[in-house]
Design a protein that fits this description.
about 120 residues; alpha+beta; 2 domains; three-stranded antiparallel sheet; two-stranded antiparallel ribbon; 4 helices; 7 strands; flat
């Protein structure tokens, strides 16, 4: 399930944003967005009458969804979901789902030590 913040959750657990397409096997973290309907019809409805234009615009925005940028399929799965892991194994994809961890900057470490000495607990 996609939440309002754009995070994917599955059974209460936050999933990675890396996605797999069930149709063509594409994997990545930037799917294309697809908005149903027609911009021309939306513009026409806005020019003729405001209320139908507003309703049509709200419908288009509320039904927007992510699609595969290659095949335009809407069958995208989180790569670290159970089905996503199975599909990656079938396709022979080696998925690195963990974000790379970098060492903190030397200045940040020095500042942390100074703050630690300044605010350490006394007895």
């Amino acid at each position: 399930m996609l939440t309002m913040a754009g995070q994917i959750t599955y059974r209460g657990r936050q999933m990675s944003r890396r996605l797999l397409c069930r149709n063509c096997g594409w994997n990545g973290d930037q799917p294309a967005a697809e908005t149903p309907g027609s911009f021309r019809i939306e513009l026409l409805l806005w020019l003729i009458l405001i209320v139908p234009g507003l309703i049509y615009s709200l419908w288009r925005i509320s039904t927007r969804r992510d699609v595969c940028p290659l095949c335009r399929s809407h069958e995208l799965l989180p790569a670290d979901s159970p089905i996503g892991r199975k599909l990656a194994a079938e396709l022979g994809l080696e998925m690195s789902l963990a974000a790379p961890v970098s060492a903190p900057a030397a200045r940040a470490v020095a500042l942390g030590r100074k703050l630690g000495r300044m605010f350490r607990r006394r007895g």
